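Notebook, p. 212. Picked up where the previous page left off. The plan for this session was modest: take the two constructs that came back from the sequencing core last week, fold each one, and keep the raw output in the notebook itself so nobody has to go hunting through shared drives later. Recording the first one now, exactly as returned: residue sequence, then the structure token string.
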Amino acid sequence: MALHGTNSDRLLAKIGGSRRLPVVIGYHRTVEEFPSNAISTIPSMCISTRMLERQLDWIGRRYRFVSLDELGALMESGNSIPERIAAVTFDDGYQDVYEHAFPLLKKKGIPAAVFVVTDLIGTSQLQIHDLLYLLLAGADSKSGSAPQFLSRFLANLGISLSPSPGMATISRDPHAALETLFGILPQSAVLSVIEALETKAGLSQNTLREHRAMSWQAVKEMHAEGITIGSHSRTHAMLPNENAEKVEEETRGSRETLERCLGEKIRHFAYPGGQYNAATVKAVAQAGYRFGYTICNHRDSSFPLLTIPRKMLWEKSCLNALGSFSPSILSCHVHGSLDFVARCKLNHAPVAA
């Protein structure tokens, strides 16, 4: 890639301000083999162990990996962040992270953090986004009825997406439908959609097992081995779509559960879906967190330590046109030079009173 070969990736990052920010990498699921069937999982949330190792090796040759506590201490000091440090995080708390990523991290001596959805730990429940996606994909593949159903259901809620671009995309792509619904609906309405979709398409036991959350025993083992455990809320609710009481339950409740189970103060929070606005950032601060992590470069000037950007990577983030791993593309991701073409799609504006 020409940007990397001429160091233009670093120049663009400096112009955009990304080089003044710490390098924090985010992942979700870690699997043995990347799934070929998009109906079986959300592709952009998966990375194979082999690809994870390639990405971490490339970063590790150029950066010193640090824990979130060390990174936080550097940011709190007010001093400039060293250019050559990086932190690694995993969202949601999947069992496969414990089974596949954790051994790799231990082998390489890489500190990392896992943000867990506390109400799901030790249960057979699926993450709400996985459940909705799988049901949408299943219903659409079987009968093609998912888009029509969604249109009718949302109309009953007083929400019309058609003929907006969003509705046109929903008719083709379950992931687009997922993003649209999570962008506008409170969790109670999303659960109603899920309940109705469950009458149209069921999920196999194998699918349920593949997407399960890790156990409390696994959380405690990882914590004992030096993995930072942070909160990702109680149920993965999209906080800007919820009322103040629900936001407090999701943030404070998750922190209290983790502190009770781990016997340690929990200071790190990752916003579910990367969604936040001024009100939710303030609520996270009031819930007792010191550091918050996003999935974009938008910052809240009143709470900069609660809006720390991350680069979210997956199996195909760094593939070239031939489908091979590209160090040049990974360099552009890490240095933030792709932020010019991949602007944040999230709405961080305050909710109207």
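Okay, moving on. Second construct, recorded in the same format:
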Amino acid sequence: MLSQLSPEELASLYNESREKMPPKEREKWLNQRLTEQVQFAYQNAPAIKEKFDKAGVPPSEIRTVKDLEKLPVTTKDELARLQQANPPFGGFLAVPLNSLNRIYVSPGPIYDAWGLERVKGAVRGFLRAGWPKPGDVVLVSTAYHMVPAGLFLTDALDLIGCTVVPAGIGQSELQVNLLHDLKATALFSFPSFTMTILKKAEEMGYDVRRDFNLKYTTGGGERHIQILRKTFEEDYGLIVGDGYGTADLGMVAYDCGLGQGYHYEDEDCVVEIVDPDTGRQVGPLQAGEVVVTLFSNVYPLVRFGSGDLASYTDEPCPCGRTAPRITRSLGMVGEHIRVKGMFV
């Protein structure tokens, strides 16, 4: 169990004004941090140094997000091969292995290195949303076996000061009883299982709005969240948090609450939407692969291909945040499919 952060420590993790910087100011801030990050990755992660050297690109040539096009995209399949050839992390880890907060495993198999920086990134997302709050009882009804989903959320909730019920997946009737008896304020699960629990509650004779203390739920990991989101909000009166991330990368983008796409998570990464065949960045509303460079002192992936196809918009969002938004998820690169947030 991680220790709860103080109010001052929590406040230091989130700066809303930075998310609303004018576009030119945001671009300058992002490019400055990117320049520092690629230098760090080159000096501390052997696989990143090899990637730059093979491409004939010194890190000093990466001064802007556009400059990232000079580097190849590392695919999930390539990461799996590199890890198998040089276990466990293929030369991408920049810290001693025993300093990691968690090590997860995703299909490939791929070892996923998670430091406390990723957990604090999730806390930032909760602070942005305004929930859950210290003292809330939260039912975490998602996978705890090898993958980040359950334990990652639990770590973040520990830092906030919530009481966590690590319910996992299954036993829907018991989950209903837990929600009711413990007066849980939030339910974190995949949308389809959240719906299963809510329907089970109704089968058991409960009125969710009247008989439960439930206020919040999450919507990540499944593409049909937008359909279920409307049901959660209108039929059950729930606030729905949503975002986009992967086991390899952590959180990549977030819904500001207006349901108009996922803003790039600038604090944690640089997001590109690129042509899967050329690696070139595409324009707004054009389809491409989501490619991510992490701002990480632990696992500094540079131009890592998520395998997800999407489009984006840079049109202003009514919320005032200036980061572009992923507008549509369009499937997978190659023949992978995603089931409950994981490639199989």
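Notes on construct two before I forget. Residues 336-344 have pLDDT under 50 and may be disordered.
Flagging for discussion at group meeting.
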